[in-house]
Specification:
It is found in: Membrane. It is a single chain. The chain is globular. The chain starts with a helix and ends with a strand. The protein has three domains: about 30-190, Jelly Rolls (Sandwich); about 195-395, Jelly Rolls (Sandwich); about 415-649, Phosphorylase Kinase, domain 1 (2-Layer Sandwich). By secondary structure, the protein is α+β, with helices and mostly antiparallel strands. Helices cover about 15% and strands about 30% of the residues.
Length: about 650
């Protein structure tokens, strides 16, 4: 009797184990969301649960905790714990052999177990595809001015049902190690098909059979959409497009009216993009005379020697008839599509659509950029000379060797000079003296800052204490005020908490704190006022420990000048290049104000009290000139190129 009971017991155990195995196999299409180096996992700030990676790792590794939490981290989970590898080690995932996979790798370069983060160089492979090679998260974060790095890949189906992701420390670097903070493996629908090759008639690329790396994903004309708010459970993050806009002509943003409902079609499901992407857009604006003379353009840094798929998302929010809004699409100055008509593509308002275009980026001088531009299709004589875009994604396609890895980004010389200058100031400044603030490596912390923009609008006598112009310029900090971090733009965030300066303008500017501005103007003392205009007051001030005199324009909150006008001025002034002038040097984003300033002086023209006009070339805009009306040592107005309007000072 006892023997029969024992046999029955073992049969029950065997059955339970079999059920567990079958259940695991059937759930192979479930996502893996791992907090690496964590024994119990955890929940991030969006309420998303992350599991421990302990059961999926093989090889020698150690668990570690970051010794410092950067304030720009969106959450402690998964970034404050890490898995450290001193030798090649692999994760093994059971996956469906019929589904593509999103693979996201999260890196927070910090000090772990007293290891030097600058020693970390490693490769990451996935079933024969090289995702990263000689990768340095520390260099990448520094160059991109971000605290953490997320790399996203879309893998083709794994026929064996076993996905192996391997981390291998570099052999060419002494003391090298690999690490990872978080891994996501998410089954995804097959959202890729063939794409037309730009510049090659009737040629296509089979994206469906390619492994891809996501380079950019933008909610054009809208706010940041976090992973928790993505559609179809794909947990993608959609970023604001503002930092990638080229020039001052950034168009206008559109939002769907309440009577416009976004309706997916049989050709476009919610897995392509969420409703929020199609509910907002960017167009060129209402003035056809202006629109026909410029392109609505975005610029992206990419790796050369790869093919890229550019996916453009469209959804008409205003027009209801064919040939009302027709435009041409250009990728790297080549026509990707002529006479694009969203209504002609979808049939009616509020219906999403997308188009894929493939472009080869060769390894030539200047070929590390990818340009996307829209222009009204004048030859079609549409009712409105305008263009429209709702979303934009750029994917890198693996090369013939199965490689997706590009080089580590190179920090700009301006950035390196700024860090060296800041370090020198810290080492030589007396206690309590003025110190240059060091570069803050991190994304913009959401919800903390209002808009303050600063630049000088008057000529001031240029004075420096034994400091050359060259060294001063070298100390300017490039600011990625709307860099691609998950806290830069969140849906529902008050607009005043976001940056309104494009990366192109910000890259030429130095960031100042509000306290520095107050110190330089004696807390905006009335004795410092040198001019008053309809938009606010102009103050004289000192920066860099009193060695540089500037003028500071502070906007009156009750004035009619808004963020749009301020951004236009910033964009324009950041492009001024002339031997008589030093361009826009900086701005600040604190305190809910609008302030901007620049050092600006006239060599050989000072001392005159008469009103006169000079013309300056617009850097990067062939044939355009700024017309400056001068009175004494001050600019009293600037005529904007391509328009009949001027900025009154």
């Amino acid at each position: 009797m006892i023997a029969k009971i024992q046999i029955l017991f073992y049969l029950i155990l065997l059955s339970l184990n079999t059920i567990q195995v079958l259940s695991a196999a059937s759930n192979s299409s479930n996502p893996y969301v791992l907090s690496c180096g964590s024994s119990n996992g955890g929940t991030d700030s969006d309420g998303r649960k992350w599991s421990s990676d302990s059961q999926l790792i093989s090889g020698n590794s150690t668990m570690a905790t970051a010794q410092y939490q950067d304030p720009s981290l969106p959450s402690q989970v998964p970034y404050m714990s890490a898995r450290i590898f001193n030798t090649s080690s692999s994760y093994k995932f059971s996956v469906s052999p019929k589904q593509r996979l999103w693979v996201r790798l999260h890196f927070y370069p910090s000090s772990y177990n007293n290891l030097d983060k600058s020693d970390s160089y490693f490769a990451v492979t996935a079933n024969g595809f090289t995702l990263l090679n000689n990768f340095s998260a520390s260099i990448s974060a520094e160059a991109l001015t971000q605290a953490y790095i997320v790399r996203e890949f879309s893998l083709t189906p794994v026929a064996s049902g076993n996905l192996n992701i391997t981390f291998t420390p570099s052999l060419s670097h002494n003391k090298s190690y690999a690490f990872v903070n978080g891994i996501e493996v998410i089954p995804m629908p097959d959202i890729f098909q063939q794409a037309n090759m730009v510049g090659f008639a009737d040629q296509t690329i089979d994206v469906q059979s390619s492994t891809l790396q996501t380079m950019f994903r933008l909610n054009v004309g809208g706010q940041y959409i976090g992973a928790a708010n993505d559609s179809a459970g794909l947990n993608r993050a959609w970023y604001d497009d503002s930092p990638y806009l080229f020039g001052a002509a950034f168009g206008v943003t559109l939002v769907a009216e309440k009577n416009v409902t976004i309706q997916y079609s049989s050709n476009v499901s919610e897995s392509i993009a969420p409703v929020d992407v199609y509910s907002t857009a960017r167009s060129m604006g209402p003035d056809p005379k202006v629109n026909v003379h410029y392109n609505l353009t975005w610029v992206f840094q990419v790796d050369a020697n790869f093919t890229y798929v550019v996916r453009l998302h469209f959804c008409e929010l205003q027009s209801t008839k064919i040939n009302e809004r027709v435009f041409d699409i250009f990728v790297n100055n080549k026509t990707a599509q002529a006479a694009a008509d969203v209504i002609g593509l979808t049939g009616k308002i509020g219906v999403p659509a997308y188009k894929d275009y493939a472009i080869v980026v060769n390894d030539q001088d200047g070929d590390d950029q990818l340009w996307v531009a829209l222009h009204p299709s004048v030859s079609m004589k549409p009712e409105y000379y305008d263009a429209l875009l709702n979303g934009l994604e750029i994917f890198k396609v693996n090369d013939t060797g199965g490689n997706l890895a590009g080089p580590n980004p190179v920090p700009s010389q301006m950035l390196l000079d700024a860090e060296a200058a800041a370090e020198g100031e810290r080492n030589h400044s007396p206690p309590g003296g003025s110190k240059v603030k060091g570069l803050v490596i991190g994304g913009v912390t959401g919800g903390a800052a209002g808009v303050v923009v600063a630049a000088a609008v008057c000529f001031v006598v240029y004075q420096r204490k034994k400091r050359s112009t060259e060294s001063g310029v070298g100390a300017w900090l490039p600011l990625y005020g709307t860099s691609t971090t998950s806290t830069s733009r969140k849906s529902g965030t008050n607009a005043s908490s976001t940056s309104h300066v494009s990366s192109l303008a910000a890259g030429l500017c130095r960031h100042f704190s509000l306290s520095e501005i107050k110190h330089g103007t004696k807390n905006f003392d009335e004795s410092q006022v040198i001019g008053v205009g309809g938009f606010g007051k102009v103050y004289k001030g000192l920066i860099d420990g009193g060695s540089t005199r500037v003028a500071i324009k502070r906007s009156n909150p009750s004035s009619e000048q808004g963020v749009h006008e301020f951004q236009t001025e910033i964009e324009m002034l950041s492009k001024l290049r002339h031997r008589h002038l030093v361009s826009l040097i900086g701005f600040c984003e604190e305190g809910g104000e609008m302030i901007w300033f620049m050092i600006i002086w006239l060599m050989g023209l000072l001392g005159s009290t008469s009103t006169r006009t000079i013309s300056l070339p617009c850097h990067g805009s062939k044939g355009w000139k700024f017309v400056l009306e001068l009175q004494g040592d001050c600019i009293i107005s600037i005529l904007v190129p391509g328009t009949q309007s001027s900025i009154e000072m």
